[in-house]
Amino acid sequence: MTSNNAISFFVNQKEYFVSNPNPSSSFNSWLRSQPGLTGTKIMCGEGGCGCCVVALQRPVESVKAVNSCLLPLCSVDGCHITTVEGIGSQRKGFNKIQSRVAEFGASQCGYCTPGFVMSMHSLLEEEESPNQQTIEDNFDGHICRCTGYRSILDAMKCFACDADSSLKDKCQDIEDLTTTECAKKQKMRLGDLRPIQIAGDSTTWIRPSSISELKSFLQELILEKRSWRFISGNTGSGVYKLTSSYAFMIDIGQMPVLRSIDNHGDSIDFGAAVTLNEILKTLTKRSSESVTFEPIAKHLKKVASVPVRNAGSWAGNVALKCQHPEFPSDVCVLLEAARAQVKVYDIVADEYSTHTVFAADGSTLLHLTDKLIISITIPKLTGKQFKMKTYKVMPRSQNAHAYVNAAFFAELSEDQSQILQFTAVFGGISPTFARAVKTEEFLKGKSIVSETLKDALNLLSDQIKQTGTSEYKHNLALGLFYKFYLSLCNPSNLGTGIESGVYPLVRPVSKGTQTFTTDETTYPVSKEVPKLSGILQASGEAQYISDRVPSNDELFCTFVLSEVPNADIDNIDDSLAKQMPGFVAIVTGDNFPSEVQNTHLYPFDTSQPIIASSHVEFAGQPVALVIAETWEQSVLIAKAVKVTYKNIQKPILTTQDAITQASFYPDVVPPVEMGNPDEALKKAKHVVSGEFNMGSQYHFYMETQICRAECTEEGGFTLESASQTHIFIQNAISYAFGVSQNKIEITTKRIGGAYGGKATNSLIAAAAATLGSYVTRRPVRFHADLKTCMSTFGSRVPYTIKYRLGFNDNGIMEGVDCLLYGNSGASVFDAEVDGPTTVELYADSAYYCPNRRYKSYVCKTNIPSTTWCRAPGSLQMTAHADLMMEHVASFLGKDAIDVKFANLYKKGQTNLKGTVLMYCQIRDIYQNLLDKYDVRKRQQDIEVFNETNKWKKKGIAISPMKFELDLSASKYSVLMAVYANDGSVVISHGGIECGQGINTKVAQVAAYKLGISMDLISVQRASTLTGPNSQVTGGSMTSEATCKSVLGCCEVLNSRIEPIRAKMGKDVTWKNLIAKCYSEDVDLTVSHMSPTLGSRSYSSYGVTCAEVEYDVLTGEHQILKVDTVFDCGISLNPSVDIGQVEGAFVMGIGFWTSEQMIYDESSGQLVTNGTWEYKPPTSKDIPIEWNIELLKNSPNPLGILRSKATGEPPMCMSICVADALKFAVEASKRERGLKTYFPLPTPATVEALHNASELHPLEDFILQ
């Protein structure tokens, strides 16, 4: 094959020729670095987040959304790619999709937004008028941590042929913003597939043009004993990273014979390179031709995501299963059940053969060494005697691997009373178990009756137990078999409610309402104003630090991470690393600059090193810093550094481990006490005790940790940091490097999400970049990948709370005594329970009790130092208060909704902090929600539903919340200047724009106070020069506090301007007024920091009701409805504040239902360190119906312009979802005669809820 070492392709209609491309590079890497099209983002590198999506069009194919992070650069030869910059921009005019995203408030931090936009663009290129369901299905491959998805879905559903009239009306209002249509379909330059051969440093990329050319080449490789790997969509690399290099990467994705789809009278053949979505669409279109086609197509929608299915081939999925038997392949399960035959070419024997996917013993029959999959043949089976159903139970609604998947096929007798043939295929049980052969054989010829079911369950149970799988998977697999067996039964032969086991949970198109009032007298304050940068985020033009083009002399650094916890470093071998291309330097504990303090956490905990010198506390701790010419080189070099350890001790990982081993930090935390809890508990008629365990949560900011540092001529540093806190970084760098703070400048334009994870965590990134720059005297960029962020940087503090609670017959609390344990990890700082504040502010939540005690302990463990995460402490404390009410209600046999109401604070009562609640409205809000959303009637309906549906249960719960907020520590500087020539205003403030809309609120307040249009105002980057001494952006108060400082600036500026205005008259234009002021020597620049001494705290209130449906047999659930009333005061911007409510609540849904930080007990390594295992909510995990009301007529006399904060309080109400799920589980247990109350598992995952249901399949699974 001729070597040409060059590829060509089009990006946004411009042709690019790339010579000597790296066969190991992704298209995303090239796109962001070479043409500098940084609107396409990078985050997970696994195809699991969606921020990297572009539109790809191959010759003779339609446009498809694909993940550019998985797309090999060499594979795009001859293709057309469209990025977010190619469909609209400031200069060329914005695309309709971009405009609607901005106007609907569907972009907060904005880092994920271009990916959503490009997925929608690709869909509209494929289908001009999709319906709402198709549009909602389209975003299964995207994560947004900010918005809660509702606003995104609404913006996109505007394009639906069946869009709601309210959406269409809103769209009409924004059409004027749009000056460009969706990009027209390209005319492809078509021709024969040209062969290419690209030689890299260690790998050669080959694309044969024909099957004969491929065969000849493969035979040569075998003779030469060279290694190779077939590439089609490369999506498997998102699951299993390559651990070794291959001599040749062979691209077979465009080979015509492997791309063919051939329809025959009795079957359909799919070539090996046919993608999963192409199979899905083909089988959907031809669903009437076989009973197997529709079940396969529906199941394929649950496999990965639209972008992955657009690129990934079915054969690649099968090959992945062959290479990794533990992989729970849905495709293999489906093909086996459908009686498909795989055609394979044996390269050595030069012959073809056909096989089923699995052998009788459960192993794959496809041993692919020296073989190539050619095609799959799926037979057409018609007739009512054939039945097929498939199942996939996974951690969340979409884009997740299966706990257990299964496919069943049966051939029945003519009267459908007898089983003639039966196939049962499972995935996820065991690497060696797939076919339940003994059960299949037993069922042949059996009648569909109770005795057959019982015997089959026993036989299947024995088979599954022999695999050694968990009890959960055993019970789940039996439940899936039971579901299918029920579907074969005549419904008239089933007992009451039994048939409910047949049907899956069906999610309709989501909907909702957002209700709020505005005050026109204060516009633009309180007006629904779109985010200032929303449209630039939607067009990909908003710049983040990672988008900054590196300077010519810029270097990159990467940590070498410890692979063990609680051990001493024995040796660091960097000999191989130093020989690798791009190596510049390596910093270890041994050669750490002696004049630099090895700590990143001054003044909070100077024992925390930048680089571990002798001992490592946790797996993932940095033990060296590699500096290289490129980021890719730094990553490879870091992997080449070999570290050995000695004195390895068993790690302490969990809060429970720490309690058992008494591993606590020595500082004694004084108890928080109110009244006389001992006496109250002694006198109480009823006392219950319990323990509540809450795990951690990763922040999942879409822009991973990044900082760029550069030495200055004064001997200091300039840093560009994705940080929530300039002051912390400035203090830490000043101490570590011995530089005065006036020589350290830190700037931030915006950051791509934070949620507390870029507060003290960002000091690690800043210290690494600064250390690299200090050592090399060149600019250095530190950019952590997702796995590093999850393994090295701290996450939410896990809690264990032990409690005793006394109450009377009415459920009224009389005394509470609690022990709080917070898992602080490797450092005592950020522990939350290391002082009284968290308890005093949040432990009581909305409930009054005159006698309380809270004693706190800070646990020392071998995990990264935990840190603040959205609603730190308040989330756990308010949930605990709520769950104590649930415990009381269960003990007394009362309705939890009534017990909670009975314990609510009343106006004038004193809270745990000692504040008299003069403006408490919680009882009124609670009662109004009950009435407005008809909760009592819904409770009755749920009771009827649960009585008539044995295997589906519904639950409903209400959670109130009191959230105390305090401005006393919220100090933020603001610099405001007016330009004399045109009167335009520029503002720079000390808060950080991280998606919460702070810049928009700042501009609104300034425009209101100055009496000018917002169009005259520009809010620029935060900097330690313009906003010195500003505190960390967090605690929900930064927007308010910054707006307070803006008001101070405006008051000073107005006082200077007013004398001139009085002379010129009230009709003078702003421009002329400012020009006159300038000529009269009026200072038009103001800096102000509002005083915080004497600031009074206030409370925000809210109540949320959640209704859920639960599948008892699988543990799956869906949130049917959520109704929220939230006290926002007079919102400064309802669009922004509702977005904050939604985003916080959905992040809470993730904490309570799907997100787990799991550490390996022996190695101490984080297992859930990527998108394959860690599962934040997606767009179909949000409530199906979601009604949000910002409380009307509720001005806050203690707030800024009568407003209240919104960033964190709504998250605390998300516990109602877990309460409702617990209600549903208890309903099932009660029906089966089991003890109903159980401690809520957190998170309440599908697996945890299924376990809590305590199913006994051999007894519970019946027909009557």
From TrEMBL:
<dbReference type="InterPro" id="IPR036683">
    <property type="entry name" value="CO_DH_flav_C_dom_sf"/>
</dbReference>
<dbReference type="Pfam" id="PF03450">
    <property type="entry name" value="CO_deh_flav_C"/>
</dbReference>
<dbReference type="InterPro" id="IPR046867">
    <property type="entry name" value="AldOxase/xan_DH_MoCoBD2"/>
</dbReference>
<dbReference type="InterPro" id="IPR012675">
    <property type="entry name" value="Beta-grasp_dom_sf"/>
</dbReference>
<dbReference type="Pfam" id="PF20256">
    <property type="entry name" value="MoCoBD_2"/>
</dbReference>
<dbReference type="Pfam" id="PF01799">
    <property type="entry name" value="Fer2_2"/>
</dbReference>
<dbReference type="Pfam" id="PF02738">
    <property type="entry name" value="MoCoBD_1"/>
</dbReference>
<dbReference type="InterPro" id="IPR016208">
    <property type="entry name" value="Ald_Oxase/xanthine_DH-like"/>
</dbReference>
<dbReference type="InterPro" id="IPR036010">
    <property type="entry name" value="2Fe-2S_ferredoxin-like_sf"/>
</dbReference>
<dbReference type="Pfam" id="PF01315">
    <property type="entry name" value="Ald_Xan_dh_C"/>
</dbReference>
<dbReference type="InterPro" id="IPR016166">
    <property type="entry name" value="FAD-bd_PCMH"/>
</dbReference>
<dbReference type="InterPro" id="IPR016169">
    <property type="entry name" value="FAD-bd_PCMH_sub2"/>
</dbReference>
<dbReference type="InterPro" id="IPR037165">
    <property type="entry name" value="AldOxase/xan_DH_Mopterin-bd_sf"/>
</dbReference>
<feature type="domain" description="FAD-binding PCMH-type">
    <location>
        <begin position="198"/>
        <end position="383"/>
    </location>
</feature>
<dbReference type="InterPro" id="IPR036884">
    <property type="entry name" value="2Fe-2S-bd_dom_sf"/>
</dbReference>
<dbReference type="InterPro" id="IPR008274">
    <property type="entry name" value="AldOxase/xan_DH_MoCoBD1"/>
</dbReference>
<dbReference type="InterPro" id="IPR005107">
    <property type="entry name" value="CO_DH_flav_C"/>
</dbReference>
<dbReference type="InterPro" id="IPR036856">
    <property type="entry name" value="Ald_Oxase/Xan_DH_a/b_sf"/>
</dbReference>
<dbReference type="InterPro" id="IPR000674">
    <property type="entry name" value="Ald_Oxase/Xan_DH_a/b"/>
</dbReference>
<keyword id="KW-0560">Oxidoreductase</keyword>
<dbReference type="InterPro" id="IPR036318">
    <property type="entry name" value="FAD-bd_PCMH-like_sf"/>
</dbReference>
<keyword id="KW-0500">Molybdenum</keyword>
<dbReference type="Pfam" id="PF00941">
    <property type="entry name" value="FAD_binding_5"/>
</dbReference>
<dbReference type="InterPro" id="IPR002346">
    <property type="entry name" value="Mopterin_DH_FAD-bd"/>
</dbReference>
<protein>
    <recommendedName>
        <fullName>FAD-binding PCMH-type domain-containing protein</fullName>
    </recommendedName>
</protein>
<comment type="similarity">
    <text>Belongs to the xanthine dehydrogenase family.</text>
</comment>
<dbReference type="InterPro" id="IPR002888">
    <property type="entry name" value="2Fe-2S-bd"/>
</dbReference>
